[in-house]
Fold these 2 entries.
Entry 1:
Amino acid sequence: MAKARNAAGAVPPADTPGLLAAMPIINPGETGTMTFTAPTKPGTYIFLCTFPAHYAGGMAGELVVN
Ligand SMILES: [Cu+2]
């Protein structure tokens, strides 16, 4: 398995305020699955990649709970 470069600190600690879920770094060519319980409170929840520069490059989205 190749190691991701510059990944130190890219995965937020589990006790990060507001964090619903996180998963380990997925290296190029690998796949991963994350399961979590969606909030029941309606709203728009942001998800993003915390690997350096990825969020700025557009690796983000919104989860809408109606
Ligand atoms: Cu990314």
Entry 2:
Amino acid sequence: MERPTTFADARADWDESQFVVVGVPFDRTTSFRPGARFGPDSIRLHSWNFESYDLETGIDLSDVPIHDLGNAPEFGNAADMVATVREEIRPIYAAGKTPIVLGGDHACSPPCVEAYPTPGELGVLYIDAHMDFRASYLGDSRSHACSSRRIVDKVGAHHVVVLGVRSVSKEEVDDNRTIGMPFITAHEVAAEGIESAMRRALTHLNTERIYVSLDIDAIDPAYAAGTGTPEPFGLTPRDVKYAIGQVAPRLAGLDIMEVSPHYDNGNTSALAARLAREAILRSTMARSRR
Ligand SMILES: [Mn+2]
């Protein structure tokens, strides 16, 4: 049996791999309850819960070339982390592979986007309970409260859609009046349905490739309690599964952030692992049809 310290079914070596799992055990910018640094290994552990065969797609993940690079090294401050993660992710894109990044707090996402070779051509679906649109938070422009703002800096406001948001400061709303980053609230998703919401999201994200950044707190705390800043009235796991499926044919990369296992009975880590597997499955299915 494989070491359960790797992501399940990650048997491929680097050269033959198509998907590359990377953990970023960093939570120094967490604004409420800490612990997301333990997310990557907990998600890996729970990934072994699942059958390698997927009933819906007919794909066996043991046939999909997945490589696990392990965790990025220890970090100092957020700026150190950003510089290190950029360098970890850059060769994955350069080799034509798809990064699957496990966090870590949401500060770990912008460097994964910044590492993309042509960020001006990349769309980003930013799934989160929070807008994360502060220019700076507590003196740190690399705080997890600023992550969508940093991504907008890199790819442009018209190439980012925030999905599932329901918590935002007045300043963020005011700033966005001039910047114009599109967002779809969790309340809108509940009212119109995820199919309609994703049609609207993909109207904005008319790029060839799309990166998905998933803050697990986008999903309702009833399903995903193991996170640092739980926010009621969230998306369902099926909403997010559907969103990932819609983006998968154009998937450039995926991250899953803010899983904080010490507030969890295991279900949040299991859900995160399953959604990472869903992205790999749906992307693989889309490739096989090309
Ligand atoms: Mn959040």
